[in-house]
Design brief:
Blueprint lengths: L6 E3 L18 H17 L3 E10 L2 E9 L8 H18 L6 E6 L10 H6 L4 E10 L2 E11 L3 E6 L2 E6 L3 E6 L9
Parallel strand pairs: 3-4
Antiparallel strand pairs: 1-4, 2-3, 5-6, 5-9, 6-7, 7-8
Length: about 180
């Protein structure tokens, strides 16, 4: 069985500048611009934009959105399709991306990404994997229990020690699934 539908959209652009004259696709400013553009569209349909991944490559790119429905038990293929259609229309109207790209919309999964302070607060006490943008004490990757969450950062318990990390220092963060946990 396949992964389900992938909805495609094509935005023509110059061959020598696949993402147009705007910031490079990997730039934080492009990611921020995409989140600011798409988050209200996703919210208008009753979903939450959990994370956005943007992977440019020669001749095109991949824009992946992770969505969730607050208070509901999961996201369906129909949910992903509805968000994909709305987001495609908004991207077309904004003309932000100047090259061909593939748009994927999916649920966040068991190893869901954490992006906002609210995401961290929701999963306080859970096991997480955090990668910082810059090394600290020669280390950029941390896996441990999310001990607490504040307005400016998080505190992890890693190998019996506490590590405070500012939200602005975090490059990526994900839940670490506990596949061995029993459900009652």
């Amino acid at each position: 069985m396949g992964r389900g539908p992938i909805f495609l959209a094509h935005f023509p652009g110059r061959a020598d500048a696949p993402w147009g004259d705007r910031p490079a696709a990997g730039d934080v400013s492009m990611r921020t611009a995409l989140i600011e553009l798409l988050e209200p569209e996703v919210a208008a349909l009753g979903y939450e934009l959990i994370e956005l991944e943007f992977h440019p490559h020669r001749g095109g790119g991949l824009l992946r959105l992770y969505i969730d429905r607050p208070g509901e038990a999961g996201v369906t293929v129909d949910d992903c399709e509805a968000v994909s259609r709305r987001v495609s229309e908004r991207l077309d109207a904004a003309d932000l991306l100047k090259a061909a790209y593939t748009l994927e919309v999916s649920s966040p999964g068991f190893d869901r990404p954490l992006r906002t302070q609210a995401h961290y607060a929701r999963f306080a006490g859970s096991r997480v994997h955090v990668e910082t943008a810059l090394p600290r004490d020669g280390r950029r990757r941390w896996t441990g229990r999310l001990a607490s969450v504040g307005e400016d950062g998080i505190v992890l318990e890693v190998d019996g020690e506490t590590v405070a990390i500012g939200l602005g220092e975090i490059r990526t963060a994900r839940l670490v699934p506990d596949y061995g946990a029993r459900r009652e």
